[in-house]
Structure formats: C-alpha cells, structure tokens
Design a protein that fits this description.
The protein is of the alpha/beta class. Helices cover 37% and strands 20% of the residues. Strand 8 and strand 9 form a beta hairpin.
C-alpha cells in the first residue's frame, strides 16, 4: 500500500532502475499528462517496458476530488504516479504528497532528471549561477510581471534565469520560445527598465534531451523568427557569462553573436 511518485526524466528512456522496480510491483500505475509534455511514443514505450497498463491523468484527476480518489486508492493498494522530469518541480505533486501524508498514506519519492538539472549539461551554463526561475504564462491567463521582475533581479546579481513557458494541455496549446521572447519585449516596452534590450542574449531550448532537441543562443530579434519546432520549450536569460560559458554556448547552442 502507498503512493510512490516516480520521475521518468525528460524522455521515455529516463526511468531509473529504482523507478522501474516500483512500477513493476504496483497495483495501479498512473502518468501525469497535465503538467508536462512527453514524446508521442513515450506512453507505449513505458507500457511495454513495465508490462502493465498505464492510465493517463488530466488536471481533474490530480486536483480536488481526483486527488482524493488517488489517496483513497493508495490506502488499500500500491499506487505509482509517473511524472515527466522530477515529480516535485510542479506544485501539483507537492500538494498531492502533502495531502496523502496527512491522510496517513505511505508516500515514496523516486527522483529523476528535470529541465532544471539538464540545462547546465545542455548549454554549458554554470549550475552555480542558476537563480530563481519563473513562468511566462499566456497573456489571457494572467500577468507576466513576475517573470520580468525575476529576470531583472537575477541580472542585477549576474545570475541566470530559467523561464518556463506555459503548457496548457487541456486547451491543446503550449507556449513557444518565439512567443515567450515577444512577451518579454512587450513588457520591456511597457516598463522601460532596460531589463531586455535588442542586445540581450537569450537561450531557447526545445524538446530538451529528446532525439530532435534544438538549442539556440541569440539576441531577441533572431529568436523571434527562429524555427524551434514543436514544444515543450524553455527560455533562459543568462546573467554575467564566464568566458568558459561563452565558449560552451558557441559550441553547444550555436551562438552566432556574442
């Protein structure tokens, strides 16, 4: 009995041996399809590997009554929730873990790689300089001032900012790097605080660690029209760059204009 959160990394091949062992002995296996996007073949690959049916969960299945049903199930059986990346990057899973623990359900956590942990390896940016992150949301869902202010604060300290781009699975949309850059430029036009300029270097990362991943470092005007392919996308605004980081961006992020 109990509820185990299993991170599966960024592709269908990122499941750890420990995570696989948990899934093999589970009574019920769910996968979160609300907070992230996986490669199309991921569900079939995981089902084949584990040899059991995997039930895809939407937002309604992870919050409110849906959350209560998972907790009730975990009182009487062994439940595994597979999550792309690391389970506790998303607050949805933190909430489920807290409520399950409060209900007296045994909870376990099997971590895996997340977008936060792979960015230094993909780009060469120093992990020591990754600071507070933020999310750019679709403008019809709310303000993006927090994202702008986060970049401003981090840049003032020479630190890098990871900007997650909104994923709205239920409405079949996910923000692109091009859209994220456009929103930042519009915010700069409104506020005029010099946080984002035409000379600001940014790094777009599309489908991190997938077979067709794309990483491109450039100034905003180039990223606005660059073809990154389909989401998931993430945007990074570097702070002060060490010469080794610049060298790495030239090699690994096709940086054209330092």
């Amino acid at each position: 009995m109990g509820l185990t959160f299993v991170g599966i990394g960024l592709t269908e091949s990122g499941l750890t041996i420990e995570g696989l062992r948990e899934a093999l002995c589970a009574d019920y296996i769910f996968i979160d399809t609300y907070t992230s996007i996986l490669p199309e073949e991921a569900l079939d690959t995981l089902s084949s590997l584990i040899g059991k049916k995997i039930i895809a969960l939407k937002r309604v299945d992870l919050e409110g009554r849906g959350m209560e049903r998972i907790i009730d199930l975990a009182r009487e059986s062994k439940v595994v929730l597979l999550v792309a990346g690391d389970p506790f990057i998303a607050t949805t899973h933190v909430s489920l873990k807290v409520e399950a623990a409060k209900a007296g359900v045994l909870v376990k956590y099997i971590p895996s790689a997340s977008i936060q942990t792979v960015i230094p390896g993909l780009t060469g940016l120093s992990s020591y300089k990754l600071s507070k992150s933020a999310t750019i949301v679709f403008p019809d869902k709310g303000s993006n001032i927090t994202a702008y202010e986060t970049v401003k604060e981090n840049k003032s300290r020479g630190l890098h900012t990871i900007l997650y781009l909104d994923i709205d699975v239920e409405n079949s949309r996910a923000m692109t790097i091009n859209e994220g850059v456009k929103i930042l430029l519009e915010l700069e036009n409104e506020r005029g605080e010099g946080v984002i300029s035409s000379e600001t270097l940014m790094i777009g990362i599309a489908r991190a660690c997938w077979r067709d991943s794309v990483i491109k470092a450039a100034k905003p005007h180039k990223l606005l029209s660059y073809d990154f392919g389909p989401p998931p996308h993430v945007l990074v605004v570097p702070g002060q760059l060490h010469f080794m980081e610049l060298e790495a961006l030239k090699i690994f992020a096709n940086m054209e204009d330092p």
